[in-house]
């Protein structure tokens, strides 16, 4: 009771501010400023499909004060709820005057999030981070009914999870819409059930599409200014037809509260992930078997590609589907299965969304000419590890005969140089023994121990070969030169250096 009274006292200034705000709201507001009238209809129709996800986990106790050892429900920082729960749990679990006392026994921690029902058999979609590492998961319906749920499957790369519970009665379900049809400025409605207090509704517009915020390999978020606060993770983002067009997942905020920058996983991605998790309990993504990089203006100029676009193939896996299909390093993928590839992320997403075993047409540009190749996709294994470049150290040694070009000291590969830079025997080309720190090569992160395999798509074996090719390109009026560069382990990448 003490905690409740304290909570009420703290709410007085908040309520006063709310009353004052309500007074200002009595002035007439233009209909256009209030937003579309359909928002209330959408909320009324779908709100019972939005649920609270409550999880608990047993963790080892840590040292420190008793308040730090006892976990409170996660609430937005600075909100009246935060002060209420701080006081309540401190008094209840061993704070001053409390009952808990100090001990180091294992404890239960709780977290809250949101989700939504997509099938009347009790299938719920939420975020993976909402239920990650949970020992127990409960779904709480909009009327407060609490039901234990089972985990069907998760996909960490898109931060999605599917749950299943036994319905106590007929359920309200929602359907996925087509996120590809969203327009900038279109009204959207975010609904969550963060504290099991019932559904909360906020509205805003689509601020941007296909946002890549580097949170994962398949980033393609919908950005919205509809308020998405803590506890709303996993909740649905609706269009005005009441269709789910996204799953609210992330916000950018210095305080933890909404500042009008929220991100939702688009429904086109969600629907595919949910189907696979329900069918297989895991994701089965397509695999092409190539390493790719962006096509800069310099690389595009070197390859006679106008305008700069596509995904440049820097390496081909010997055991991947691309190898037998005839895809080679230096090819630029500009279309995959009928869809344009503007940048490497496009190719990664489309390949991952494609069915394993599907035969697709891949349009590439090779030496300025378009070609169409057929590829039968393999399956991407989640346990595949990205190879990391070996750490190279410049060790003092007797200098070999070198040639200077492009701000680089170049030498033919020898046994001594292979040993010094730990270069595999399978790597062929011309080794870099030094880099002018004021050169474009240094800016593009070339370093001693790198091996130049090709210059302008022609193999080289000596520093003199490179110098001759560079001199000829300058005479031909080229502004840049494209190098195929290998690291000590044989991992390839393309680097375009200025000739001016």
How would you describe this protein?
By secondary structure, the protein is of the alpha+beta class. The strands form five sheets. Strands 21, 22, 23, 24, 25, 26 and 27 form a seven-stranded antiparallel beta sheet that branches. Residues 1-27, 29-33, 63-82, 91-102 and 383-398 have low confidence and may be disordered. The chain has helices at 2-25, 31-34, 38-46, 66-69, 80-92, 128-131, 267-280, 297-303, 322-325, 344-353, 415-421, 440-443, 463-475, and strands at 50-59, 107-119, 123-127, 136-140, 146-155, 160-165, 187-192, 200-211, 221-224, 236-238, 244-251, 262-266, 285-287, 290-294, 311-316, 332-336, 339-340, 359-366, 369-376, 378-380, 403-405, 408-412, 430-435, 451-455, 458-459, 480-486, 492-498. The longest helix is centred in the first third of the chain and has 24 residues, at 2-25. A hairpin with a 3-residue loop joins strand 2 and strand 3. It is elongated and about 80 Å long. The protein is built from 13 helices and 27 strands.
List keywords for this structure.
500 residues; alpha+beta; 32% strand; six-stranded antiparallel β-barrel
């Amino acid at each position: 009771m003490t905690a409740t009274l304290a909570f009420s006292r703290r709410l007085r200034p908040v309520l006063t501010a709310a009353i004052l705000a309500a007074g200002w709201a009595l002035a007439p507001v233009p209909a256009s400023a209030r937003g579309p009238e359909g928002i209330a209809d959408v909320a009324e129709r779908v709100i019972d499909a939005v649920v609270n996800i409550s999880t608990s986990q047993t963790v080892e106790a840590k040292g420190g004060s008793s308040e730090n050892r006892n976990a409170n429900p996660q609430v937005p920082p600075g909100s009246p709820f935060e002060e209420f729960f701080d006081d309540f749990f401190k008094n209840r679990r061993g704070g001053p005057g409390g009952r808990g006392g100090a001990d180091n026994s294992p404890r239960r921690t709780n977290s809250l999030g949101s989700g939504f029902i997509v099938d009347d058999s009790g299938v719920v979609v939420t975020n993976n981070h909402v239920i990650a590492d949970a020992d127990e998961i409960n779904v709480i319906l909009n009327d407060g009914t609490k039901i234990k749920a089972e985990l069907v499957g998760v996909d960490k790369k898109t931060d999605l999870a599917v749950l299943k519970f036994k319905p106590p009665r007929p359920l309200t379900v929602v359907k996925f819409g087509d996120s590809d049809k969203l327009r900038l400025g279109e009204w959207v409605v975010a609904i969550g059930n963060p504290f099991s207090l019932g559904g909360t509704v906020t509205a805003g517009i689509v601020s941007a599409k296909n946002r890549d915020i580097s949170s994962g390999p398949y980033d393609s978020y919908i950005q919205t200014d509809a308020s998405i606060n803590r506890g709303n993770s996993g909740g649905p983002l609706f269009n005005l037809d009441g269709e789910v067009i996204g799953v609210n997942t992330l916000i950018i905020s210095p305080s933890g509260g909404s500042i009008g920058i929220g991100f939702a996983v688009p429904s086109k991605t969600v629907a595919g992930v949910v189907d696979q998790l329900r069918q297989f309990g895991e994701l089965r993504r397509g695999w092409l078997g190539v390493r790719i990089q962006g096509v800069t203006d310099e690389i595009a100029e070197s390859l006679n590609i106008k305008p700069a676009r596509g995904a440049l193939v820097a390496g081909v896996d010997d055991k991947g589907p691309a190898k037998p299909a005839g895809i080679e390093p230096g090819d630029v993928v500009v279309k995959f299965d009928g869809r344009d590839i503007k940048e490497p992320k496009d190719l990664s997403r489309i390949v991952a969304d494609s069915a394993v075993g599907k035969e697709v047409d891949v349009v590439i540009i090779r030496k300025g000419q378009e070609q169409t190749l057929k590829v039968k996709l393999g399956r991407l294994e989640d346990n595949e590890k990205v190879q990391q470049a070996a750490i190279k150290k410049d060790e003092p040694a007797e200098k070999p005969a070198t040639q200077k070009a492009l701000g680089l000291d170049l030498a033919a590969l020898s046994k001594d140089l292979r040993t010094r830079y730990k270069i595999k025997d399978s790597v062929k080309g011309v080794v870099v023994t030094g880099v002018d720190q004021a050169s474009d090569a240094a800016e593009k992160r070339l370093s001693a121990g790198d091996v130049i395999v090709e210059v302008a798509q022609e193999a080289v074996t000596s520093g003199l070969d490179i110098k001759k090719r560079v001199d000829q390109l300058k005479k031909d009026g080229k502004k840049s030169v494209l190098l195929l560069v290998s690291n000590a382990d044989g991992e390839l990448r393309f680097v375009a250096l200025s000739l001016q």
